[in-house]
Amino acid sequence: MTDLTAVSRAEEWQARGTRFSWSPADEAAGPVEIFHVELGDSDAPVLALVHGFPTSSIDWFEVSAQLSARYRVCMLDFPGYGFSDKPRGWGYSLRRDAELLDHYLAEVVGAESVVMVAHDRGDSVALIHSAQAAEQRARVRLEHLVLSNGNIYLPLSNLTDAQRLMLHDPAVLQRLTPELFAAGMGALMFSPPRGADDPEVQALTKTFAHADGIGVLHETIQYLRERSVDEQQWLQARAAAPLA
After folding, report:
1. Measured at the alpha carbon of residue 230, what is the angle toward residues 76 and 115, in degrees to the nearest 5?
2. Which of 43, 76, 159, 170 has the highest count of CB atoms within 10 angstroms of its CB?
3. CB neighbours of 114 closer than 8 A, spacing ≥ 6?
4. Residue 200 — left, alpha, or beta (φ > 0 → left; ψ -120 to 50 → alpha)?
5. Residue 174 and residue 166 in contact, taking contact as beta carbons nearer than 8 Å
6. DSSP letters of 73-127?
7. What is the pLDDT of residues 164-187, one digit of tens each?
8. What phi and psi, each to the nearest 5 degrees, are found at residue 31?
């Protein structure tokens, strides 16, 4: 039986947010609708929380409310994730997401400077943005950068069997449902493990189901290939450019 409080958790998050249209500068992909949430005083320092794979801004559900007492907390769902659009064949990439992140902070939020906290896949997006900011190619000045999840260092990465299947065999996704995917994450990624009836797991089910998110998992997980080529360069650029 579905827990109504769990469903309302995802619905509450969706109700807190709004959407804006965005197109990449290279024009190789069409416009997408991007979901975002902002909490806190609009005059407070801006704190950007950047989500990972395969989840979305709803990861920050609990912590964002606490941080909003001090910051203007700004979160978005990248294309292919959460409550944003998920068109097939769109061309998902870390670099496009870094471009989107800068657009969001500069044009939608109207920030001149930002404290950024990123997680998992979001670390790579944040590293690209920080390197661009250090070279003054980003419009928003980065005050502080916090990266979580040691897998940003490729030698330490430990892909699960499920991640390898999603990366190499898109056919496996034909047998996957949002419910199964969320339940698997609850069992494997939470400590202690959480069952399918847990509010967070059921909220994940709703975000995966939105706009057929399972259908683009093989495309969105290709960021691992992009990261394997470029991440040492991003890390070196970050190390060589101390924050202002």
Report:
1. 35
2. 76
3. 46, 47, 48, 74, 105, 140, 141, 142, 143
4. alpha
5. no
6. EEEEPPTTSTTS---TTS---HHHHHHHHHHIIIIII--SEEEEEEETHHHHHHH
7. 889 888 888 888 999 999 999 999
8. -65, 150
